[in-house]
Amino acid sequence: MRGWIIDCYPDRNDEGVVLWFRTADRVVRVHDAGYRPSFYVSGQGLEGLTRDLEGAGAITSLVRRRTELGAPPVEVLKVSVDNSRQLARLARAVDRWGDYRRFRLYNVDLRIGQRYLLPRGLFPFGLAEYDGGMRMLESRLRIDYPVPPLRASQVCMESGYGPKPLPDDPIRSLSLDGMQWEGREEDMLRDLQEAVRRVDPDLLLVPRGDSAGLGHILHRASVLGLEGFELGREKGLREKEERSYQSYGQTVYRPAAKMLRGRLHIDTSSFMYREGGVSGVLDLSRVCGIPFQDLTRVTPGTAISSMQMDQALRSGHLVSWKKNRPEDFKTARQLIRSDRGGMIHQPVVGLHQGVTELDFSSLYPSIIVNFNISPETLQCSCCPQAERVVPELGYRICGRQQGLLPQVIRPIIERRRTFKRLAKERPERREDYEGRSKILKWLLVTCFGYTGYRNARFGRIECHESITAYGREILLRASEMAEESGFRILHGIVDSLWLQGDGDVSRFQDRVGREYGIPLEDEGRYSWLVFLPNIHNGMGALNRYYGAFQDGRVKMRGIAARKRDCTPLVRDFQTRALSLLAEGEGCSGFMERVPDVIGLLQGFHERLLSGEVPREELVLTRRISRPLDGYRQMNHTAAALRCLRQQGQELQPGESLRYVLRDDSSRQPSQRVEVSELQGEGGYDAGFYAELLLRSGEELLSPLGWDRERLRQRLLGRGDQTVIGSKPV
Questions:
Q1: Which residues contact 101 (CB under 8 A, 6 or more apart)?
Q2: Closest by alpha carbon to 240, among 178, 162, 302?
Q3: Which terminus of the chain is more exposed, N or C, with fewer CB under 10 A?
């Protein structure tokens, strides 16, 4: 029979692997009970280790494998065990027996999708044929491929109040697609289970499915003693514990994963699903080899790391369990020269017209590919007189072999460019292609950061330094060519340039593209553009601007309306203000509409002071960075967390908290703030929200001379009524 692998995971008793195979008209469970996972060990004393492992029930053999990128194969010990639990236990034991230094271990923590599917040439959602054995009928990099006829259903649940339901909160209503149930909890749960069995969807889409939806449904069924309650196609649940972690200076919370067996539970609030939808996640699942359900619960960095490991395994390399490659020694002078970021032109603060924005397409990933940057290609032993040398840093780059990173990233770049082109050529499938393109964009964004991430399997800080060095050279040279072509540079940052002047944009793009082999894309020509100042020193802020393109599109970066913690009221004001300003052509049209924006601000201000603003427009959203006991001062966030604790709820670092400020001067948490989901009644602190509103007005108009105090006087009917500003350029 022909069909698609839609899921792959260990048997619930950890006896082999289960595959779910979707044909055109049915779903088949395939169980490989004879599968035995393996890991590898290198080091001194392997003979004694062999006796210990075989005494523990493992099967061992000496084989030759590559343990380092670009290095020849060496003899290692292959250790095969009965199941993944035994593998993890024995790997930890071997590490301990070697005093955590005598042995190096490989292929220990590979995901089951990689460990089982890759050696067999299989991948999720690829067309395959099954006749007792499985074989693929297509390439994983195919662009237009047949998609399995997946049936999707949406499950919605309403429970108690609060950011997430408490264990004792009863379910008030349930729905599946168009069917809805209310009444006795037991009856609703039985009706949901029966409807799922009857409809038999392949995907269950559940809003906040891991943090609140499906998890609470299964918990309540257990509390109520509903034996045999299942929403998967087989009994049991695959779970992963919740955790909070730091990423790029932010605290991120990952709820406990609730993955069904035989049916795919998709938490629709997950990052991957929000960015790519079903089409994007399905395509990425094919490419990176991670099953759909698991993929929606990992980061783009995990996906690109998985692809790197796949490439390494296919080329006969092993994947080190614990990376131990140190940074190369550098003198203080070398550190100063190498530890730098991207090239920047300080933006010219103020109002401008006739500006063209140009962006390099996937600059850093393209540098990796075009200049063959990879851990094993930098300072390689085979090219002591390499022709290619990293600018400023002097690192030699191998000219004989293509590195691992370029092998992985090149197909992603080409695939994304193809999807972007198809989205324009085939409007009937634009949504699918855009979802696939968008999710691949995040892989390309992350692949650069992972070269400098200390825990990345194939990371190396010298790769990170080399990429930024090439990036600086390319933007600097492009800037020189722009000035030679008759342009003035208003701003430039890493991979983008904002140019003003009468030069030939197309000719300039072609010239830069030919020199470096990286397309320079035209993002559009602005009717007017405002670069905003840094609030601390008045210099141009690197990523805070807004403008209107000549085709009517509005672009904004770094202002309140773009931030997740912005109140709906402020977002509404700034969005409407920009729409008003966008009606004006050029700087003169912009200036003519500034009084309208001030009038709009005054209307919002008066509505605030009158108490007429609905509370849902005043919700403040904050991502908490620590538990309540970690706060030393009773600020807004701590007060809201204290209110939640009084209701029996605790949020973990990284989770989002939503509240309305009632009285900023009160020292009583319940009088100071009100958690949005608790749905209490009361007023709001009009003065506090008025200040937020004034700040958002100042953010837009400060380059024109309208600071917060001047706006306040204007709204109170005092002060200068004229509209002045910096001279438009």
A1: none
A2: 302
A3: N
Q: How far apart are CA 36 and CA 33, in angstroms?
A: 9
Q: Do domains 338-558 and 595-715 have the same CATH topology?
A: no
Percentage of the chain beyond pLDDT 70 is: 97
Q: Which two tokens stand for residue 321?
A: 């369990």
pTM of the model: 0.91
Q: Which two tokens stand for residue 113?
A: 């999708």
Residue 66 backbone phi and psi in degrees, to 5: -85, 120
**For residues 201 and 193, is the Cβ–Cβ distance under 8 A?**
no
Q: Which residues have C-beta within 8 Å of that of residue 77, sequence separation ≥ 6?
A: 40, 41, 42, 46, 49, 50, 53, 60, 61, 62, 63
Q: Taking the CA atoms of the chain, what radius of gyration do you get in angstroms? A: 29
In Å, what is the CA distance from 712 to each residue of 538, 609, 689, 692, 699? 20, 13, 13, 12, 14
- How far is 288 from 267, CA to CA, in rounded Å? 20
Torsion sign, CA atoms 550, 551, 557, 563:
positive
| pLDDT given for residue 718 in this prediction | 56
User: Which superfamily does CATH assign the domain made up of 595-715 to?
Assistant: B family DNA polymerase, thumb domain (1.10.132.60)
Q: Which residues contact 142 (CB under 8 A, 6 or more apart)?
A: none
User: Cβ neighbours of residue 22 under 8 Å, at least 6 residues apart?
Assistant: 3, 4, 5, 6, 28, 148, 149, 150, 202
**Which pLDDT does position 241 carry in this prediction?**
87
Q: Enumerate residues 6+ apart whose C-beta is below 8 A from 414.
A: none
Q: Which of 258, 259, 277 is nearest to 215 (CA)?
A: 258
- What is the predicted pLDDT for the residue at 174? 95
Q: Which of 152, 153, 155, 122 is nearest to 139 (CA)?
A: 122
> Based on the number of CB atoms within 10 Å of its own CB, is 479 exposed (0-12), middle (13-18) or buried (19 or more)?
middle
Mean pLDDT for the stretch of residues 565-573: 95
Q: Is the distance from CB of 112 to CB of 295 less than 8 angstroms?
A: no
Domain boundaries, the chain: 338-558, 595-715
pLDDT digits (tens, 9 = 90+) for 278-306: 999 999 999 999 999 999 999 999 999 99
Sorted by sequence, the CB contacts under 8 Å of residue 311 that are 6+ apart come out as: 404, 407, 408
What is the reported pLDDT for 476?
96
**CATH number for the domain running over 338-558:** 3.90.1600.10
Q: How confident is the model at residue 362 (pLDDT cuts 50, 70, 90)?
A: very high
Residue for token pair 């917060």: 708
For residues 101 and 87, give the distance between their C-alpha atoms in angstroms, rounded to a whole number. Answer: 19
* CA angle in degrees (0–180, nearest 5) for 199-207-172: 80
Sign of CA dihedral 638, 643, 648, 654: negative
pLDDT higher than threshold 90 for residue 667: no
How do the residues of the chain divide into helix, strand and coil, expressed in percent and rounded to 5?
A: 40, 25, 35
| Angle of the 300-314 helix axis to the 271-288 helix axis, nearest 10 | 10
424 CB-contact burial (10 Å; exposed 0-12 / middle 13-18 / buried 19+):
exposed
Pick from 545, 632, 191, 168: nearest CA to 351: 545
Residue 211 has pLDDT above 90, yes or no: no
